[in-house]
């Protein structure tokens, strides 16, 4: 169908995007890989030569590595569980007939459009502040001592802030999936006397499986690299130093580029493992 | 009878959904309300909800003291520039992939998606170094380019899924009727592509506006957009709730409004067309 001429025109039209992205991917990646094998301290002498796999072993061997992996997993896991479970409930609820559905939808989706630095600061000061925060007031009202959220319950606090930001995304995607559910099938099941739980378990959940997978994968990719929320609230203190925050500190704060780059390579590998699964699903969808 | 039951159930649904919706929205509502209070009312005990002396003072103070307009302009420039630049590069690419697909189209699309998965922190130092070497650190141009590149895969993907929905038969019909290539693009394709391009523009403007890794790490005083401006309020001397709220409200208001218009596109854009 397509002529030779239109094929070469098509190639020409694609070229700028492909070349730019290729450069954007290869140049920094090569540099990171290169630095990760060098002893490179910009403030203390610059590039001090070949380091072999020293940076890789030192990054893993440092006392903050495993805690950072743990913090990352707890945050990602916690946020995923909260957003997926609440997202399913909210999606099913929003699908029901009600008055003012459009407005409720807008209310639920709104947090997604709040920039990360704003939501982190608002939660940190106006809600979680132990003196003037709204939570402190509620706690005092019930006669309890106010909690210093971001130091005493730092992980829970961050999980809560990030979940608040991502719940709209999960809800919106799951709602889209719920709406494509065959209502006749559901009604038939209801007529046959299937309880809500069995309808949910055997009809709704299998239908949502793909949407849930997509939510989990996409959120994981974004959550692995959350930055602003930690930067603004705890600055990595109180056990909230995630892997990406640790790398950020190594590279920009302590200016140990070799070590940080080795950490960067680990982060890239980790993200790619998740990405492969996501790409499979998206790729399958392309054929359909 | 049956109708009464449905109405009861509908009322219950409405009550539950509205309560949950208001709880989720409450932090935003509270921020907006606090921005109209005086500093004393903002931390008063017990908290005042609606019955306080509404004032616009915080807004003028924020503007005067920290020159809000300059940060706003930086945000507009960076988000708008990166989106427009991205569209200029992505439209032809998505176009050719949708209308002249080859065996490798799918691989190219997936590969583009994979560049989006690259964790930013993994390439932070190289970009930082390149920015210093090229004199791009703390410039709007530099940030515009970086944000364009990180959002380019999403732009290409969104456009591709929209373009693919344009039926090819229409093009053939136009060709049969003797339309030239120029007329075909101008009068047949463009009108059908505009809604998709507009949605893509909207969503990517939002994403670029809220981006908070590169904007925090690659800017200082000159090119800082609103994300960095707000982060500067986390230092202790900036801790005035009412002013913080006013600054926050101004930073999120434009996007909140745009976001409500782009709900549908959000799903398509962020799932790379996997959910529509």
Automatic annotation (TrEMBL), chain A:
Keyword RNA-binding applies: no
Q: Where is the ABC transmembrane type-1 domain?
A: 69-278
What's the main place this protein lives? Answer: membrane
Q: Which CDD domains match?
A: TM_PBP2
What are the GO cellular component annotations?
Answer: plasma membrane
Subcellular location, record wording: Cell membrane
Query: Which Pfam families does its entry note?
Result: BPD_transp_1 (PF00528)
Q: Which UniProt keywords apply?
A: Cell membrane, Membrane, Transmembrane, Transmembrane helix, Transport
| Segments crossing the lipid bilayer | 12-37, 71-94, 103-122, 158-180, 200-223, 230-248, 260-282
Question: Biological process GO terms, please?
Answer: transmembrane transport
Q: How is the protein disposed in the membrane?
A: Multi-pass membrane protein
Q: Which family does it belong to?
A: Belongs to the binding-protein-dependent transport system permease family.
UniProt name for this protein: Sugar ABC transporter permease
UniProtKB/TrEMBL annotation, chain B:
Sorted UniProt keywords = Cell membrane, Membrane, Transmembrane, Transmembrane helix, Transport
Name the GO terms of the biological process aspect: transmembrane transport
Membrane-protein topology: Multi-pass membrane protein
- The positions making up the signal sequence are none
Its main subcellular localisation, reduced to a broad class, is: membrane
| Record InterPro entries | BP-dep_ABC_trans_perm, MetI-like
Domain of life from the UniProt record: Bacteria
Q: Which residues cross the membrane?
A: 12-33, 71-96, 108-129, 141-163, 184-209, 240-261
One family name in Pfam for this protein = BPD_transp_1
CDD domains according to UniProt: TM_PBP2 (cd06261)
Q: Can you say where in the cell this protein is located?
A: Cell membrane
Domain ABC transmembrane type-1 per the UniProt entry, residue ranges: 72-262
Q: What Gene Ontology cellular-component terms does the record carry?
A: plasma membrane
Q: Which family does it belong to?
A: Belongs to the binding-protein-dependent transport system permease family.
Q: Which PANTHER family match?
A: INNER MEMBRANE ABC TRANSPORTER PERMEASE PROTEIN YCJP, MALTOSE TRANSPORT SYSTEM PERMEASE-RELATED
**Name of this protein:** Carbohydrate ABC transporter permease
What species does this protein belong to?
Roseobacter insulae
């Amino acid at each position: 169908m397509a002529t030779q001429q239109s094929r070469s025109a098509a190639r020409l039209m694609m070229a700028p995007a492909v070349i730019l992205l290729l450069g954007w991917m290869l140049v920094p990646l090569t540099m990171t890989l290169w630095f990760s094998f060098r002893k490179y301290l910009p403030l203390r002498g610059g590039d001090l030569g070949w380091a072999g796999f020293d940076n890789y072993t030192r990054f893993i061997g440092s006392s903050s590595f495993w805690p950072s992996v743990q913090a990352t997993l707890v945050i990602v896991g916690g946020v995923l569980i909260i957003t997926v479970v609440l997202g399913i409930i909210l999606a099913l609820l929003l699908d029901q007939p009600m008055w003012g559905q459009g407005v409720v939808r807008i209310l639920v989706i709104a947090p997604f459009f709040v920039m990360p630095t704003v939501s982190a600061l608002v939660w940190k000061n106006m809600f979680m502040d132990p003196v003037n925060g709204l939570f402190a007031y509620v706690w005092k009202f019930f006669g309890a001592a106010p909690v210093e959220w971001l130091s005493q319950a730092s992980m829970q606090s961050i999980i809560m802030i990030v979940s608040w930001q991502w719940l709209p995304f999960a809800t919106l995607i799951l709602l889209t999936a719920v709406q494509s559910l065959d209502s006749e099938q559901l009604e038939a099941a209801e007529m046959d006397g299937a309880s809500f739980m069995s309808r949910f378990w055997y009809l709704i959940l299998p239908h949502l499986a793909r949407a849930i997978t997509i939510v989990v994968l996409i959120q994981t990719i974004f959550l692995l690299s959350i930055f602003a929320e930690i930067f603004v609230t705890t600055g990595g203190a109180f056990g909230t130093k995630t892997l990406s925050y640790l790398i950020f500190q190594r590279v920009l704060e302590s200016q140990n580029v070799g070590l940080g780059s080795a950490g960067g390579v680990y982060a890239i590998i980790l993200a790619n493992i998740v990405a492969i699964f996501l790409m499979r699903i998206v790729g399958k969808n392309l054929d359909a | 009878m049956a109708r009464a039951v449905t109405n009861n159930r509908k009322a219950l649904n409405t009550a539950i959904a509205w309560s949950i919706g208001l709880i989720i929205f409450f932090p935003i509502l509270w921020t907006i309300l606090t921005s109209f209070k005086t500093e004393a009312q903002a931390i008063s005990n017990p908290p005042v909800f609606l019955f306080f002396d509404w004032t616009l003072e915080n807004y003028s103070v924020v503007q005067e003291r920290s020159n809000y307009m300059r940060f706003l302009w930086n945000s507009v420039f960076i988000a708008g520039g990166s989106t427009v630049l991205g569209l200029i590069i992505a439209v032809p690419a998505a176009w050719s992939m949708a209308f002249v697909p080859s065996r490798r189209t799918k691989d190219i699309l997936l590969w583009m998606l994979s560049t989006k998965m690259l964790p930013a922190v993994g390439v932070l130092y190289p970009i930082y170094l390149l920015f210093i070497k090229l004199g791009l650190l703390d410039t709007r141009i530099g940030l515009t380019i970086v944000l364009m590149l990180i959002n380019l895969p999403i732009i290409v993907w969104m456009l591709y899924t929209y373009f693919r929905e344009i039926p090819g038969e229409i093009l053939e019909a136009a060709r049969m009727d003797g339309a030239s290539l120029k007329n075909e693009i101008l009068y047949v394709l463009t009108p059908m592509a505009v809604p998709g391009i507009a949605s893509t523009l909207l969503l990517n403007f939002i994403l670029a506006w809220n981006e908070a890794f590169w904007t925090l790490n690659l800017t200082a005083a000159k090119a800082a957009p609103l994300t960095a401006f707000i982060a500067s309020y986390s230092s202790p001397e900036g801790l005035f709730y009412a002013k913080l709220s006013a600054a926050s409200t101004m930073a999120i208001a434009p996007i909140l409004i745009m976001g409500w218009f782009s709900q549908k596109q959000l799903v398509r854009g962020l799932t790379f067309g996997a959910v529509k």
